[in-house]
Amino acid sequence: MAVTVVVVDDDAGFRRVVTMLLTARGLSVVAEAVDGASGIEAVRRHAPDAVLLDLNLPDRDGLAVARALRLADRPPTVVLASTDASPWPPEELTEAGIRSFVVKDRLFDADFDALFSS
User: Fold this and answer.
1) Is residue 20 exposed (0-12), middle (13-18) or buried (19+ Cβ within 10 Å)?
2) Considering the chain, what is the average pLDDT of its residues?
3) Domain containing 69 — which CATH number?
4) What pTM, to 2 d.p., does this model score?
5) Closest by CA position to 53, among listed 71, 35, 41, 70
6) Which terms are listed as keywords in the entry (predicted)?
7) Are 76 and 49 in contact (CB under 8 A)?
8) Which pLDDT does position 52 carry in this prediction?
9) What domain range includes position 66?
10) How crowded is the C-beta side of 46, counted as CA atoms within 13 Å?
11) CA atoms 59, 64, 69, 75: torsion sign
12) 114 burial class (0-12, 13-18, 19+ CB within 10 angstroms)?
């Protein structure tokens, strides 16, 4: 069974491209969201295995969203993505419930099994 993913990013073009990329690699994108609030709602509604989460969202940052997702009965694997390198130490990302961080332009070469496996 394919890993289910919710993509949370305010850039429609990025969501479209990454959804095609994830699908081509055998993952199932079950929902997309444009901000943190709708991302949290999409995770509540769809209970995905994983979330690809943008760091910079219009209503809150990705760490705040990850912290909220961590409180779910069955928290998804969270992969944080940004155009820039992470300004936070790995320990802080882990504490927020983030499994890994990836720079967006490196997603095309990423090992999605390693990123999204629980």
Assistant:
1) exposed
2) 93
3) 3.40.50.2300
4) 0.94
5) 35
6) Phosphoprotein
7) yes
8) 98
9) 4-116
10) 22
11) positive
12) exposed
pLDDT in tens, 43-93: 999 999 999 999 999 999 999 999 999 998 899 999 999 998 777 788 989
Sign of torsion, CA 115 116 117 118?
positive
Which one-letter amino acid corresponds to residue 8?
Answer: V
- Residue entry with tokens 């928290």: 75
Q: Which of helix, strand or coil describes residue 11?
A: coil
User: Residue 47 and residue 20: Cα distance in Å, rounded?
Assistant: 20
Cβ neighbours for 74, distance < 8 A, ≥ 6 positions apart: 47
**Into how many domains does the chain fold?**
1
> How far apart are the C-alpha atoms of 101 and 87, rounded to whole Å?
11
